[in-house]
Amino acid sequence: MGISLAEVLDILELDIGAVKAGRNAMDNLVVRVNVLEAPDAIKWLAGNELLLTTGYALQGDPNFHRDFLQQLAAKGIAGLGIKAGRYLDPIPPEMIQEGNRLGFPIIELPAYLPLSQVITPVYEVLLNQQVSRLKRSQEIHAKFLEIVFRGNGFESICSTLTGLIDKPVFIVDARHQVLAHSGEDFLSPLEVADLKKDLEGIDLKYDEISAPKTYETYEFIPIEARIQNETRQVAFFPIIGGNHVWGAIIVLDVAKDIDFQSITACEHAATIAALEFAKQDSIFRANLTSESQLLEDIIEGNFSSLQSVQRRLGYFGFKLQGNLRAMVLDIIDFESYYLQEAKKGEKHFQKVKDEIYRETKAMFHGFPGSFLGGMKSDSVIAIASLKDEEAENRFRLIVRKLSSALQKKFPQIDISFGIGRPCFDLTGVHQS
After folding, report:
1. Is residue 323 part of a domain?
2. How far is CA 315 from the centre of its chain?
3. pLDDT digits over 61-112, tens only?
4. pLDDT per residue over 260-311, tens digit each?
């Protein structure tokens, strides 16, 4: 929110001749107007103010005037309006000289113009601007709430946001895997593929960002991505819910004409995306519990017939038959790590196990054969259906990639992998 000093002049019906110094800085942003009649009040200023004064507190020697203007400029004050014909008549030349040197605007206010008639019309514009933005913000929020009510997911969030800000949008999880994107009118399939590849290589830890760029009050993290041999500006808007970073909304070409309303739209989209992540996480955890129990029953042989267990598998969308392999991923001596890092709290250790399991599921996503995985204590257990030699080779390749990825992500934890002997019937899995 704010207006430029040039707009303030228009509101007050003053011409450029009223600007006695710093005419090259008339685009300075004004977000509030204050009256200053005590120089020591500078320490209470926040920046982006238009300061008004009768000049009573500015009577002093030239050094005082220079020091005063330097303090205002350092504070990010938009400009200084001095009432003519009162205590500074004319405005001292050293003030004008210093204002020009600093690029700091000094405006001479007419003697006939009460300060209240400066403050009131400027604040009317600022308040109307705020009302307009709040109204627009409510409209944007309503659009995203409709997504929640309709039960739509990430694709709908992306397409709605693209429609609002007219830019390509991606939603990624905390591992920077693209979950949805929109803006096909802006990016070719090759450009989308390039961006996905670039995102996967970014090692961005949101909680370690010390000074993210800020627009108004919302923070985003600017990066550069290489797309089709061209450097493009990309902004990460972290998706946060329940003190947990789920992922990010990514907006391409953010450096070009992005405004407050666009930032507001991204903020609303991130809020709704956090709700969607939380919903999917609840479903994920419910399925994990059920699938882990089913897997344990299969491995321990706790079923009366193949027909009954196949029916249970079918309910979850799995079909385990043919060449079957059991896999165990074990966190070695996790208790020692637990004791060593005890100060991090129980949530940290649960998060470590969750991430190991999620990484495993993500690696086997799209596996050409059924893959049923679950958790048991400090281990990930799984059964894979290897329908042919290609599937078996793919299975071993994924296991190697998974081992490398987990070692890189959790260097302080030892993880071992075990692959069982081939078996061709679920009744023999417990012996594998």
Report:
1. yes
2. 37
3. 888 888 889 999 999 999 999 988 778 878 888 999 999 999 999 999 998 8
4. 778 888 888 988 999 899 888 888 888 888 888 888 888 877 877 888 888 8
Start-to-end Cα distance in the chain: 66
Contact 199, 172 (CB under 8 A): yes
Report field, pTM of the whole predicted structure over 0.70:
no
What is the domain count for the chain?
Answer: 3
Instruction: Give the residue numbers spanning the domain of 418.
Output: 300-431
Q: What residues pair up with 423 in beta bridges, in sequence order?
A: 324
Helices (H) and strands (E) in the chain, counts: 11, 17
Give the relative orientation of helices 116-150 and 260-299 as an angle to the nearest 10 degrees.
30
- For residues 261 and 340, membership in a common domain is answered with no
Are 34 and 80 contained in the same domain? yes
- One domain for residues 309 and 271: no
Segment (H or E) for 273: helix 260-299
- Same domain (yes/no): 321, 214: no
What are 237's two structure tokens? 């808007």
Distance CA 25, CA 6 (A): 9
d(CA 252, CA 266) in angstroms, rounded, equals 12
Amino acid present at 5: L
